[in-house]
Structure formats: structure tokens, C-alpha cells
Amino acid sequence: IVNEVSTLRRHLQARHQGEYLKWSAANGFKSMLPNDAKQRRKEAISSMQSVLGRQSSLEGHLVERGPIVQYSEAVFHEATVSWLIETDQLIHALQHPSFGRMVEIASRAKNGVRIPSRRQTHQAIINAFKTGLLDLRKRFSVSMTSIQKLMSFLINCYRVVLSQGESI
């Protein structure tokens, strides 16, 4: 029994280093022995210092976005008309509240807008449809109970009226 929890890496390094290295190489496993980990840390620090020692470039971090079009009412109007024509939309689509909401949301984007793929859009539509059906099912089942109670009440009233000989 030991008084501390250990991964036994020091023991492996001292007593079974050859077997461990052979096993790690055969299984494509990075050696976690203390000396090997220490060596990797030293190499990482030295490579980082060599990178910091020279001016780094932004080339690997920049993303090509194409020309940025400056906003103006005329450019937006031209883009909406072009969208209507190319997608064969009705003219009323521009006045639809959902379209206005979409434009409002997109106008607040700081780094551009990523349009969902067809697959993502398809799945979102199916999920919305299923949610709508479940909601309708809940509402309808509640409504059916209420309708059944109302119908039985109306039938009882009709029977009472008929039993009294009154005409409706």
C-alpha cells in the first residue's frame, strides 16, 4: 500500500523502459515516460522561442473573403431584385416579416454570414415540422376532450328540451 496515487511512469522508466518503448512504438502510442515528456517539452519551448525570435506572418491565419461591397441603398436594392429574379421568388417575399427579420439579423453580423447548407436547412425544416405536429397533437387532444364535454352537454340540453316538448 502506498500513500500516494501514481501512474507508475517512473517505475516503468527505471525498470521496464525497453519493453514500454517497444510496446508504445508497436501501438503508435506517444511515450509518456518522464524523460521523454521532459524532452518533448524542451523541444516545444525551443521551437516556440525560435518562432518568437523571428517575425511571424499572418498568412496561415488569414481567410480569403473576396471583395467587400460597401453598403448603400442602391446596392441592396440591386441585390434584392437580383435575388428575386434568380430564385424565382414572388415580389411579396421582400415584404414578408421573416425576410425583414433575416436581413436585420444578418446586418448585425461582425464577421460575415455563414449560410447553412442544404442538408442543415432540410434537417431544420423537418425538425420544425415535427415540433409543430407534436404541438398540434397536444392542442388537439386537449381540444378533443373539451369538445367531447361540450358535445355531451349540448346533447343533454337537446334531450331535456325534447322531453319537455318544446321545439327548437
Write a structural description:
With 168 residues, the protein is an all-alpha fold. The chain is built from six helices and no strands. It has helices at residues 9-15, 17-26, 34-53, 73-86, 97-107, 118-163. The protein starts with 8 loop residues before the first helix and ends in a 5-residue tail after the last helix. The model has no long low-confidence stretch (mean pLDDT 81).
Biggest sheet architecture: none
Q: What is the string of helix and strand elements?
A: HHHHHH
Low-confidence runs of at least 5 consecutive residues:
none
Strand content: under 5%
Radius of gyration: 36 Å
Summarize the structure.
Helices cover 64% and strands 0% of the residues.
